[in-house]
Amino acid sequence: MLQLDLTGKIALVTGATGDLGRVMVRTLADCGADVVIHYRSNEDKALELKQAVEALGRRAITVQADITKQGDVNRLQAEAVAGLGQVDIVVANAVIQYQWESVLKQPIEDYESQFESCVMQSVYLAKAFVPAMVERGGGRFIGINTECAMQNAPGQSAYVAGKRGMDGVYRVLAKEVGESGITVNQVAPGWTISDRDRATGSERNEGYEKNVPLKRRGSDQEIANTVVFLASELSSFITGAYVPVNGGNVMPAI
What we know:
Helix 1 crosses helix 9 (220-231) and helix 3 (70-83) packs parallel to helix 4 (108-136). With 254 residues, this protein is an alpha/beta fold. Helices cover 45% and strands 15% of the residues. The protein has 9 helices and 7 strands; from the N terminus they run E-H-E-H-E-H-E-H-E-H-H-E-H-H-H-E. It has a 7-stranded parallel sheet, sandwiched between helices. The two termini are 33 Å apart. It comes from Paenibacillus algorifonticola. GO terms for molecular function: oxidoreductase activity.
């Protein structure tokens, strides 16, 4: 029987206290991984997640860090190793939130924040965590991208610019570290249902859903399931991929 078994693996999720991050943490732990729970400011939610992971019989630590600063990411790596051991699975999920505007109105600072939180976070994480993966001859490096990177809709410019830059880093990194048995992939969610939607009863949006071939929005659990698949041995020959999880709303072409 095929199983998504991560027993003995140590995973890091950045932005772990966010809507998607929380589900990723719980799903990774449910499949057997110990988890480094990164947060920037929501310590209470991070500690709550730590308890949830431990209730599943797995180990967990929480680490506060600003993923846009290389020094903080290096400290994150050191605390992860000291607390749990060398990280086998990196999930770059954190991103800075901002108000979308047209190119002509979008503040320059928002382009800078997206570059820092999408591109440079990935570079800092790679520099901090991948060398040990190379030494061990394997690992998983997974980034959370977005369907917006293919949509290029009005108002998305800063977000799209950051995520498309991130895409380039991942594709190059996949070629550079593949010979060491490390896979590098991206998961690209669509407009995803989270606990926030469930609390407000806003799961449905007909305007969005009418253009989705599966005629619905995806769930946070479906995103987490894809992340765990890419973290597992079942995906051992997949690298350099951009995987939309959006019901077919965008479809990469060959």
